[in-house]
UniProtKB/TrEMBL annotation, chain A:
InterPro entries: Glyco_trans_1, PIG-A/GPI3, PIGA_GPI_anchor_biosynthesis. This is phosphatidylinositol N-acetylglucosaminyltransferase. One of its GO terms (biological process) is GPI anchor biosynthetic process. Its EC number is 2.4.1.198. Residues 46-135 form the PIGA GPI anchor biosynthesis domain. Pfam families: Glycos_transf_1, PIGA.
From TrEMBL, chain B:
GO terms for cellular component: glycosylphosphatidylinositol-N-acetylglucosaminyltransferase (GPI-GnT) complex. Residues 88-151 form the Phosphatidylinositol N-acetylglucosaminyltransferase subunit H conserved domain. One of its GO terms (biological process) is GPI anchor biosynthetic process. This is PIG-H domain-containing protein.
């Protein structure tokens, strides 16, 4: 069977469906493409409401919604060792060969990578965000990342800026870090059959209305653009703490008829909003890689964005107008974009996006990283502890202690419930009969 | 007549086929293997613990030893009284399914489900915060939650598969799941 030839990958993150976002999309689409390439992919995340237990998604993608409740920003409570028993069970029963963790914010990801290394599995980590170096939160996160990446087989970043940032924060050798950009499902984001009317120019903004996404910039940019261009209308999709400021701005400048506030937008509706516009405006203050820009470009919109993080790497120069995160510069960039609009062909832009960004390409490149990770030599506990010791005078000793305890707990689990007592699961082959996915047990199960 | 079909480190699977009033009653038993060594260890541990506690409270004497023995025995008994020794699935064709839980004390809890209420028997992967194991459950009409056939025992799938197959046949779900069950077997 094809599955046996491929890798058996466990994707781990606190962020997955039914939640929507860049990381969630990345894990889902990457998993789907890896399944098509003949690999076995299993996802492990925490429970979302009453969505708990084992679920199956398209093409038999198996998802373990572990019944741990999130406690902050969709993250599970960091317990260090609480996830070890279930992690070990999943790794054995699914015969996993490689663990792939996503997002530095995810506590489940950090714990999973730690336990996987203790058990001798090869691990790959993908960083989806940029971090600072000065504030307390960033300093703490960088130390946690340094601990996790001290013993990682390979790492992936979504942009060169992100790679630079990760290498600086974690002290990981640059040759261990690969750059694989995100992609877009171009089949889902197609331009409108007919171009929107050119009598009025519609500028679309779809993002969470938070400080990091530059909602404060929008408050200053929208009134100025509205004053300069009477035929410009704004559609703002998204919700967040900064929504109040935008509402106040709309009232203050009497722009109720020209600024449409949609509130939270379900992912399924994003395309229908995008195709009603001409220009997509992204005002993020920090961004490792902006998927929203890809979605907008795939729908044939010209993008105006702040020149931050990995954004300049995302699109070719003729598809994006970049500006500094400053209201004046943003207004100038929008003016330039308006003048460029007649030269834009949405269908041509969509076709170019199809060639530039494909999830199959991302999967193939990730496959190469997996191959390299699996070729890495196995190291014993003492060799690994020396890496942790180099993480800092005090932190290094704490990290070593954490890993020693983890190793001892694993040994205890081996005695209490030997690997032989944990049943390996059968392979699931999607076979539709009465709308069911039927099971096909392995030869070893048949012989049993 | 009972005949041992399968055995694992912790469980024994037994299957009865009894002809009663021209009806074939299909009984599947899962017996939990008693571990007398562990019973003894638990008793010793409780005895020593209660000895130490009473020694701390009263000072060691014959009465304390006697009390600790009685206390230890009571604790062990109450622990094993609620301990499941056997769980059974009794399939009565055209009538229904009876789920039984047998305790060490001799008590039995029975739950009868009429056949027309059973929508489907399912082999399910049961995920808890600390482990994942197979479970056999029944989808019941009008009930939001699944009814577990073996609540207390975490059985290997090789023991659950024949019971699931028998339930599929008894509930008239044999055709759509025949291919599956043959592969499970």
């Amino acid at each position: 069977m094809a599955v046996e030839k491929g890798h058996r990958i466990l994707m781990v993150s606190d962020f997955f469906y039914p939640n929507f976002g860049g990381v969630e999309n990345h894990i889902y689409y990457l998993s789907q493409c890896l399944l098509k390439l003949g690999h076995k992919v299993v996802v492990m995340t925490h429970a979302y409401g009453n969505r708990s237990g084992v679920r199956y998604m398209t093409n038999g993608l198996k998802v373990y919604y572990v019944p741990w409740r999130p406690f902050l920003m969709q993250n599970t409570l960091p317990t260090f060792y609480g996830t070890l028993p279930v992690m070990r069970t999943i790794l054995i029963r699914e015969r996993i060969s490689l663990v792939h963790g996503h997002q530095a914010f995810s506590t489940l990801c950090h714990e999973a990578l730690m336990h996987s290394r203790t058990m001798g599995y090869k691990v790959v980590f993908t960083d989806h965000s940029l971090y600072g170096f000065a504030d307390v939160g960033s300093i703490h996160m960088n130390k946690v990342l340094q601990f996790t990446l001290a013993d990682v087989s390979q790492a992936i970043c979504v942009s060169h800026t992100s790679k630079e940032n990760t290498v600086l924060r974690s002290g990981l050798p640059p040759e261990k870090v690969f750059v694989i950009p995100n992609a877009v499902d171009t089949a889902m984001f197609k331009p409108a059959p007919e171009r929107p009317s050119s009598n009025e120019i519609v500028i679309v903004v779809i993002s969470r209305l938070v400080y990091r996404k530059g909602a404060d910039l929008l408050v200053e940019v929208i009134p100025e653009v509205s004053r300069l261009y009477p035929n410009v209308r704004f559609i703002v999709g998204g919700d967040g703490p900064k929504r109040v400021r935008l509402e106040e701005m709309r009232e203050k400048h009497s722009l109720q008829d020209r600024v449409e506030m949609l509130g939270a937008v379900p992912h399924a509706r994003v395309r229908s909003i995008l195709i009603s516009g001409h220009i997509f405006l992204n005002s993020s203050l920090t961004e490792a890689f902006c998927i929203a820009i890809l979605e907008a470009a795939s729908c044939g919109l010209l993008t105006v964005s702040t020149r931050v993080g990995g954004v300049p790497e995302v699109l070719p120069d003729d598809m994006i107008v970049l500006a500094e995160p400053d209201p004046g510069d943003m207004v100038q960039a929008i003016s330039k974009a308006i003048s460029l609009l007649p030269t834009i062909d949405p269908q041509l832009m969509h076709n170019r996006m199809k060639k530039l960004y494909s999830w199959h390409d991302v999967a193939r490149r990730t496959e190469i990283v997996y191959d390299r990770a699996l070729r890495c030599s196995n190291q014993n506990l003492l060799d690994r502890l020396s890496r942790y010791l180099s993480c800092g005078a005090l932190a290094g000793k704490i990290f070593c202690l954490v890993m020693i305890v983890d190793f001892l707990l694993w040994c205890l689990l081996q005695l209490w419930k030997p690997a032989g007592d944990i049943e390996e699961v059968p392979e699931y082959i999607p076979f539709h009969q009465d709308g069911e996915i039927l099971q096909s047990f392995n030869a070893d199960q048949n012989s049993a | 007549m009972s005949n041992i079909r399968l055995a694992s480190a912790r469980y024994i699977y037994m299957h009865d086929d009894v002809e009663e009033a021209c009806k074939k009653v299909d009984t599947h038993h899962i017996v939990f293997k008693r571990r007398n060594f562990w019973v003894f260890l638990v008793y010793i541990f409780v005895f020593l613990l209660s000895m130490k506690t009473l020694d701390f409270c009263l000072g060691i004497d014959r009465t304390a030893v006697l009390w600790s023995m009685l206390f230890g025995a009571r604790l062990v008994y109450s622990f094993y009284q609620t301990r499941v020794v056997k769980e059974s699935v009794v399939i009565i064709p055209a009538f229904g399914v009876q789920l039984e839980t047998h305790f060490w004390s001799g008590g039995v809890v029975r739950n009868f489900i009429p056949v027309d209420k059973i929508l489907k028997p399912v082999l399910n992967e049961h995920l808890t915060p600390f482990t994942c194991h197979w479970s056999l459950a029944l989808v019941i009409h009008g009930k939001e939650e699944l009814v577990l056939a073996f609540k207390e025992l975490h059985l290997p799938v090789k023991m659950l598969a024949p019971i699931w197959k028998a339930l599929c046949v008894a509930t008239g779900r044999g055709e759509s799941t025949d291919r599956v069950s043959s592969e499970v077997q």
